[in-house]
Every structure is written in structure tokens, then in C-alpha cells.
């Protein structure tokens, strides 16, 4: 009896400690992404880079995603699934915003500053690799944290694309590499929105109750 009691208390303490670890990590990545949004968006405007601005919107989306994840952390599985659905819808909204940016760039774009793209692309990549490292241990805990990990993983891919585009813009003196990377980021937004929503909906949907026939 005593052993069972101690074992149960040990499991409770382990769960509490893990929630505390998750909360601390989410606060850190929320702060990192919020700061990077401000820096990268400003650099994108100055550099006239659709890819940098799209990537900065990704940072903003992630900051809001982490804020929602923090709020959902200690709530029910259905509430967490609802939070993941919200994040999926928000990711879709940002993806559509990126598509509008791309259209404007195609119509009026000039070659962006490849140096600014490179500097802030590398900075954003370093920030997201750090966030990804922090989130790695919690990626399979629940659908809410899984969607959070998905966001950071996509960021790393997008950042790498911005760095590649910076080199191609410098090489060809053309806006098209910048536009191409912005298109890839938009695709990642839309794919993530579909994946997160597909995983979260079955957990959010209330269970079907069979009533006995009268």
C-alpha cells in the first residue's frame, strides 16, 4: 500500500515538473519569436524582401501560437485540440497574407537587398534552431504541443530558404529568387494548417453517444 502511494505521488510530481518545464520553454520561445518578428519585419521593409516579410509573419504567427499553447497547457484534451484548431486557422490566414505579398511583389517588385536578407536570414535561423532544440523533448506530448513543434520546424526550413534566396538575388540581381522563397513559405503555411487541423479535429469533436433504442 505504502509503495503504491509513493509511486502514485512520484508520478504526480513528475507530471507537475514536466508541465513546469513545458511552460518555461514556451515562455522562452514566445519571447524569441516576438523579438525576431520585430527585427525581421523591419529588415524586410527596408530590404524590400517579400521572403523576409513572409518569414517575419511566420515569427508573429508562432508567437501567437506559443501564447495560445501556454494558455491551453493545463486544460482538457478537447480544449487543447480547440487551441490547435485555432492555430491551424491562423496559419491558414497568414498563408493567404503571404500570397497577397507575393502578388504585390510580382507586380511592383525590384531586387531586394541581398545583404540584409542574408544577415537576418541567418539570425532568424539561429533563433529557430534554438527554439526547435528546446521544443524537441515535448513534440509528442499532445496535439497542442505537436502543432507548436510543427511551427518551429517549418521556420527552420523557411529561414534556410531566405538564406539561399539572398545568394541567388546577389548572383542574378533579380527579385525572382525572393519571390520563389516567399511562395515556398506560403506553401508551408498552408500545408501546416491542413496537418494541424486534420490532427486536432477528431480530438475536438465531441464523442458520439449512442442512445439505446426505446
* First-last Cα distance: 46 Å
Using DSSP, what is the number of strands?
0
C-alpha Rg (nearest Å)? 20 Å
Average pLDDT rating:
76
Low-confidence stretches: 1-17
**What is the helix content?**
over 70%
Structural class: mainly alpha
* Biggest sheet character: none
Strand content: under 5%
The string of secondary-structure elements, in order, is HHHHHH
Please supply descriptive tags for the structure shown above.
214 residues; mainly alpha
Describe the protein's architecture and organization.
This protein has 214 residues and is mainly α. It is built from 6 helices and no strands. Helices cover 85% and strands 0% of the residues. The chain is globular, with a radius of gyration of 20 Å.
Briefly summarize what is shown.
The model is unreliable at 1-17 (pLDDT under 50).
Topology:
Elements: H1 2-47, H2 50-72, H3 77-108, H4 114-135, H5 143-172, H6 176-204
Helix pairs in contact: 1-2, 1-4, 2-3, 2-5, 2-6, 3-6, 4-5, 5-6
